[in-house]
Amino acid sequence: MFLCETCGTQFADGGDEPPAACPICEDGRQYVPREGQRWTTLEAVRSRHAADVRELEPQLTGIGMEPSFAIGQRALLVESSAGNVLWDCLPLLEPHAEFVRGRGGLGAIAISHPHYYTTMVEWAHAFDCPILIHEDDREWVQRADACVEPWSGERRQLSAGLTLIRLGGHFAGGQVLHWRDGASGRGALLSGDIVQVLPGGRWVSFMYSYPMLIPLGAREVERIAAALEPWEFERIYGAWWDRVVPEDGKAAVRRSAERYVRALGVA
What is the mean pLDDT of residues 27-40? Predict the structure, then answer.
């Protein structure tokens, strides 16, 4: 099963030859390198990369890999008495699996958008748990499996303190995870890059394509900000280690959306 080296997506077993193309990279929100599509395998990734595990706050652990691979995101393990959740995904399963089992395994995997699907099926098989993606993004799944469970609607309650919220924007089914008990009970938003945390930790942004610098429309950004208004969150965890809004997260979304719309010159 080949992995795209540019986005990290794992494809279904197609034999000895890699896929002809990566639909996720050929989409306008990603890119194909100038030298062309490149492929690798999970075995090769295991041989070249090591685990990078960091405690971020009580019941939240970052799970990354060193050196960086593909888009370079790290996943987040949210510990819950109702079942742990892996938020977003990354290619390297071992040796992370041993750490995750030591924390109680996984009750579910939830992924913000297709750029981070990567080896999600490998993870789900290892922990015998479902993968929750929004049905609006099911077309981007490159390795179909019964563990992939698309959901519909605008919210999906995982437990009393964990809720998936469909925001759309970057992808139609783009989702974030609201963690009520995060930030010492003040609430945290795990956003991937559906709500992109910017350098400095005070602002966020919203894009159709980040590498291609294609913005979202003003009305779409206002809709996303309005969808987050009912939720309380002090902190926002983006897709990379240094992309965190440590405090005043809800206000950061509000003022960032207002700044975005002003910059587009929309009255």
Answer: 96
Q: Which CATH number is 81's domain given? A: 3.60.15.10
Query: Cα separation of 88 and 86, whole Å?
Result: 6
pLDDT value at 266 more than 90: no
Left (φ > 0), alpha (ψ -120 to 50) or beta: where does 168 sit?
A: left
First to last CA, the chain: 50
Cα 162 to Cα 78, 111, 119, 178, 179: the distances in Å are: 9, 14, 23, 6, 5
Picking from 240, 103, 108, 105, the residue whose alpha carbon sits closest to that of residue 177 is 108
> Which secondary-structure segment (H or E) carries 262?
helix 249-263
114 vs 88: CA distance, rounded Å: 10
Cα–Cα dist 176/113, whole Å: 9
Domain of residue 137 covers 2-263
Is the entire prediction scored with pTM above 0.90?
A: yes
pLDDT tens track for 58-111: 999 999 999 999 999 999 999 999 999 999 999 999 889 999 999 999 999 999
Count structural domains, the chain: 1
